[in-house]
Amino acid sequence: MTAAIFLYTGAVVITLWGISHIIPTKSVVAGFGTLSADNTRILTMEWVAEGLTLIFLGLLVIVTTLIIGPDTAPGNLIFISVAVMLIVMAVWSALTGARTAILPMKACPFVKSITAILFILAVVL
Predict the structure, then answer these.
(1) Residues 31-58, buried b or exposed e (16+ Cβ, 10 A)?
(2) So what's the pLDDT on residue 15?
(3) What is the pTM of this model?
(4) Which tens digits make up the pLDDT trace of 62-82?
(5) Higher pLDDT, 56 or 101
(6) Distance (Å, rounded) from C-alpha 69 to C-alpha 75?
C-alpha cells in the first residue's frame, strides 16, 4: 500500500509538472526576445518535448501501477527506469536551466529528484 501511495504521488507530481511546463511555452519563447523563425521553432520544440516527456513518465508509472501492480518485478524495473531518467533530467536541469534567475527553472531539479526518490522508495520499501 505504501508503494502505491509513493508511486501515485510521484506520478501525479511529475505529470502536473510536465503540464505546467508546457502551458507557458509561448511566454517563455517570447522572453528570449526577437529570434529567427528557426530558433523560435527549435526552442518551442525543446520546451514542449521536455513537458511531454515528464507527462509520459508520470502516466507510465500510473498505468504500470494500475495494470501490473506496485510490487512486481516488471513494475519495479519500470519504476527504477523512470527514476533513473528523472535523475538524468534533474542533473541536466541543474547544469543548465537552474543556473538562470528563473525560479521555476531553479525548482525543476528538485521536483524531478524528489519524484525519483519516491519511485525508488516505492521499490525498496
Answers:
(1) eeeeeeeeeeeebeeebeebbebbbebb
(2) 98
(3) 0.94
(4) 999 999 999 999 999 999 999
(5) 56
(6) 6
Scanning the chain, the segments in alpha helix (DSSP H) are 2-22, 25-30, 37-67, 73-95, 103-124
Q: How many structural domains compose the chain? A: 1
pLDDT on residue 105: 86
CB proximity list for 73: less than 8 A, separation 6 or greater: none
Cell numbers given for 52: 511531454
Distance from C-alpha of 62 to C-alpha of 88, rounded to nearest angstrom: 20
Q: Answer yes or no: are the C-beta atoms of 115 and 84 closer than 8 Å.
A: no
d(CA 84, CA 25): 26
- CA distance between the termini of the chain: 10
Domain span including residue 20: 2-124
- Buried residues in 99-110 as b, exposed as e (16+ CB within 10 A): eeeeeeeeebbe
Angle at 122 between CA 108 and CA 5, to 5 degrees: 85
